[in-house]
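User: Can you help me understand a structure? I only have the sequence.
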Amino acid sequence: MSDPAATDPRARLDAAIAAVRSDVVARQREVDGIVEAARDSNADDEHDPEGATIAFEREQARAQLDLSRTRLAELDRAVERLRAGHYGVCETCRQPIAADRLIARPEARQCVACASRAAGR
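Assistant: Let's start by predicting it. Here is the structure, written out as tokens:
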């Protein structure tokens, strides 16, 4: 039996959304744990030699959480494009986005060529 996510864009998007939602929950727990540990500690970020490390870890965890939330929003927008009949069409050149790209990045809004140009590559 074949995997529907391999051929069905909606199934692929739903699978990606579920994975990223799970990631957001895990990353939020990580941030909450770091914040809670720092709150329970007597460490003063400015004067404690470990404080800078704790602050760095907290900011790294928050940045990763933000990236996951951004990807989730991009996936939600991809579902809207699918509903509107625009999914898989490059927003820049209006050509179809390669199936391999959509499998790798179901939220892709641009074909590889346009995304590369936009990134300055």
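Now, to help you interpret it: Residues 42 and 48 are 9 Å apart (CA to CA). The chain has two domains: 4-87, 88-121. Let me know which part you'd like to focus on.
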